């Protein structure tokens, strides 16, 4: 069979609280009461209410046929033997939450019933048939399990459990809830939406997960690549014949996969977050409950993925802010160090200028001292070899070391020793 993307309603908005009324009715609809009247030891169907025929399938809605012929799947499940027992003993039989598989092949479905087989008697008290009265409890049973599992997932998301843990738990939850064997896969979209990466698939073989990790999104790229490209569900009921699976058919065969229903996981703004897929071992046509379950959990996956990305963005913003704060603190420290160094240089320059003024005053009486005048309070015993002056006319004699210190730290100081060639002679020495 080929892909039929328009086989069901458009995908959910990802918010969990926005599931459609149709999905809720499909998952939590009212229980159905069925009735049928059977005649004779062969249990020939005489009459039944519409709910009975809707339950077994409208294509089998006919009377005058033995129930074993109309519903052959009941024999292997023990229900025909129970009818024989009630007919032979005349004792009614009541079952509670009895599991029954209705139909066969890709259209088979699991159901649960509370039922009673009640003998019908003629005027003489002889058993002539059986009345079947049942109440389908399938949706009630599934709803109870679904609510418990779904609540646990939401609690995981609320406490910010790792995304891989949430998605893996969700996949296992759906595999547990589904009436028939199903293998769930979640793929995550790259930021550009062009490729899909492995998110969770606890029951698919590793070689399969590795092979599809990084597949492109595009028309005809399997179920998931096509669903991501179209932004709408793609239902492939038979991988062996579907053209979308031409490039992946051998891979699916090695993994034992025969059907794949995929739908996109969309963010609130409509952007692609990933895909949610349900695989089956045999060709399968989805029931409305299957699709409703998939839509609800695609919404749950969207919530988990968006929450994860929000937390990632928050962590990145916090890291960026911390880095900026650290850089600012580093710059402030450097500025303080430079200011302190400048203040030290200014203090040293002021001290040297004071020494020059003191030396200039001393030179009024002594034209040229024998020892360095620039040593300050520490004094300097070195010979006075060079004369320096500043633009204010102050001058002093000093040793080469103190003269160099003054030139570097006191503004407008230059060599004033004409015998040595002035400033040019000092710089070129």
Task: Please identify the top-level CATH class of the largest domain.
Answer: Alpha Beta
The number of domains? 3
Helix content: 40-55%
Low-confidence stretches: 1-19, 420-429
Strand/helix succession: HEEHHHEEEHHEEHEHEHEEHEEHEH
N- and C-termini, Cα separation: 97 Å
CATH architecture of the largest domain: 2-Layer Sandwich
What characteristic shape results from the CA principal axes? rod-shaped
Strand content: 15-25%
- Per DSSP E runs of 2 or more residues, the count of β-strands stands at 14
Short key terms for the protein model shown above:
429 residues, alpha+beta, 3 domains, disordered N terminus, disordered C terminus, GAF, GAF-like_dom_sf, coiled coil, PAS_4, GAF domain-containing protein
What would your notes on this structure say?
The chain has 429 residues and is of the alpha+beta class. It folds into 3 domains: 5-21 and 141-314, Beta-Lactamase, CATH 3.30.450; 32-136, PAS domain (Beta-Lactamase); 366-427, no CATH class. It has 12 helices and 14 strands. The strands form 3 sheets. Strands 8-7-6-11-10-9 form a 6-stranded antiparallel β-sheet. A 5-stranded antiparallel β-sheet has the order 2-1-5-4-3, sandwiched between helices. Strand 10 and strand 11 form a beta hairpin. Helix 5 (138-158) runs antiparallel to helix 6 (163-177) and helix 6 (163-177) runs antiparallel to helix 10. It holds the Pfam family GAF_2. Residues 158-315 form the GAF domain. Residues 321-359 form a coiled coil.
């Amino acid at each position: 069979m080929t892909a039929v993307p328009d086989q069901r309603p458009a995908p959910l908005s990802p918010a969990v609280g926005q599931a459609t009324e149709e999905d809720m009715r499909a998952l939590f609809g009212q229980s159905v009461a069925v009735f049928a009247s059977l005649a004779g030891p062969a249990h020939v169907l005489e009459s039944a209410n519409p709910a009975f025929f809707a339950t077994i399938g409208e294509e089998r809605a006919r009377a005058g046929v033995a129930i074993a012929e109309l519903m052959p799947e009941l024999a292997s499940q023990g229900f025909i033997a129970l009818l024989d027992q009630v007919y032979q003993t005349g004792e009614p039989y009541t079952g509670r939450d009895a599991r029954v598989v209705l139909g066969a092949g890709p259209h088979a479905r699991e159901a649960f019933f509370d039922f009673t087989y009640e003998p019908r008697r003629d005027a003489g008290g002889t058993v002539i048939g059986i009345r079947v009265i049942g109440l389908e409890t399938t949706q009630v049973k599934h709803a109870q399990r679904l609510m418990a599992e779904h609540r646990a997932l939401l609690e995981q998301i609320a406490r910010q459990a790792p995304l891989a843990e949430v998605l893996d738990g969700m996949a296992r939850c759906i595999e547990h809830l589904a009436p028939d064997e199903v293998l769930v896969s979640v793929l995550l979209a790259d930021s550009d939406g062009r490729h899909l990466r492995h998110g969770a698939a606890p029951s698919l073989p590793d070689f399969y997960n590795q092979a599809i990790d990084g597949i492109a999104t595009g028309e005809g790229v399997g179920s998931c690549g096509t669903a991501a490209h179209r932004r709408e569900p793609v239902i492939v009921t038979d991988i062996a014949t579907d053209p979308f699976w031409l490039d992946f058919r051998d891979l699916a065969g090695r993994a034992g996969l025969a059907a794949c229903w995929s739908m996109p996981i969309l963010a609130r703004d409509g952007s692609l977050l990933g895909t949610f897929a349900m695989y089956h071992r045999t060709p399968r046509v989805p029931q409305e409950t299957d699709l409703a379950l998939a839509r609800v959990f695609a919404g749950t996956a969207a919530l988990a993925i968006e929450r994860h990305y929000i937390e990632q963005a928050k962590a990145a913003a916090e890291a960026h802010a911390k880095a900026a704060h650290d850089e600012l603190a580093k710059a402030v420290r450097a500025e303080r160090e430079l200011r302190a160094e400048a203040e030290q240089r200014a203090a040293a320059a002021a001290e040297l200028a004071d020494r020059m003024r003191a030396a200039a005053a001393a030179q009024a009486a002594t034209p040229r001292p024998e020892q360095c005048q620039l040593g300050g309070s520490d004094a300097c015993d070195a010979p006075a070899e060079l004369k320096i002056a500043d633009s204010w006319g102050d001058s002093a004699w000093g040793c080469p070391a103190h003269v160099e210190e003054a030139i570097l730290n006191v503004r407008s100081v230059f060599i004033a020793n004409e015998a040595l060639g002035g400033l040019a002679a000092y710089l070129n020495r």
